[in-house]
Amino acid sequence: MNVNFDKNFYLGAAIEHDTKKVTSSAYSLVQKDGGNKYWFTYDASNSVIGSGCVIPYCEGKLTIASEGKWNHSDKARLQLWSQPLTLATGGRYICSEDSSVFFGFEFAKYVSAQAKFDHKINKNLKVTIHQSYDCDRLATKRAPYDLGLNVAYTL
Fold it and tell me: Domain 47-153 is in which class?
């Protein structure tokens, strides 16, 4: 369910029921302010509180989104600042009609970062390079760094 009021405010709820009891529920409040969006979410089923924003810059060529989540039910897995807290931010920059860059960071118990570069060579050929680094993997045998290359040809 989503209710719009005053043109720029949205109130949403998603509730699941198995005919005996509520099995899950989540709620959100969103405000649009020009091209900016701000939100607050609460997932009652998992005790997760979130808030964030999307702000376009450079005539819409750069969009940055940030979000914080506090998971009250996950106190055994302490994350950022010895709290069950995760902060994430990311963005997309449109360099040209054919090229874009995505970046993202997550700060929890460990830090992870990623970047993706897309370039459309012509109407049929697109190249994507993706790289990521996950400090959470430092304590495992898996390497923390990933690098990927994708070449797509569309008929």
Answer: mainly beta
